[in-house]
Design goal:
65% helix; 10 helices; mainly alpha; single chain; 2 strands; 268 residues; two-stranded parallel sheet; Ferritin
Length: 268
Amino acid sequence: MGASVVDVAGAALAETDVDAKLAATRALRADWGAGALELAAPTQAMVPVDRPGVPTRPLLVHPRDVPRRPVGSEAGRAALVHAVAHIELTAVNLALDAVHRFGWGWGLPVEYVGDWVRVADEEARHFSLLTDRLATWDVAYGDLPAHDGQWAMAVKSAGEPLARMALVPRVNEARGLDVTPGMVRRLRAVGDEATVAVLEVILAEEVGHVEVGSRWFAHLCADRSLEPEAEFRRLLDEHGVALHPPANVEARLRAGFSLAELEHLGLA
């Protein structure tokens, strides 16, 4: 018997060194794919949702205190890429937590674990693509401040996977689908095609990540005889989450939203 994938995901989640976290995430996917890990009861204590492994830098500040600079300058482009890199590293932790917190004991099939192991690995690759761009400007991850608002959704939805699948992929990550095209346009206008290429890779794969969340949200709703679109709206109301246009309707449709749902949400 191999180690429990739930324990291994938890160890990666708890890791505070960024390079070690990325390596552990890559190894998690490789070992899961090779059959070296088991979907079995964890033997280690659960990582507290309010204390995931994060590095000592960057300095975390309120969103309004994160400097906003025009992308016409290298400093402005570096600030934008640093902000997206921070989102992607948080997304690594969110995917690891989806395996660690809900992979065992909630009746979800083995395919659920495989999906989120893959997502964690892809988010880690996105982070590395972005930090490679930062290096061209002599900036390292952690050199600039960041905010950690994304993780608040993990804390809100730590109690059960239905809320997690609703509030993280279908709110947090879906918002990334909405805002990335605007970033691409601004960067293309100043001739930064190298960063555009990275963001286009990320956008294409993030559609798949939101679709994973939509699919497992629908699965959990079916298990509980809930209508998914009504339940999603109920969870938004329960947790005080508001969605705002403009939305990337085409990407959201590919990611598991229906046009009627987007219309009910005021996004189409």
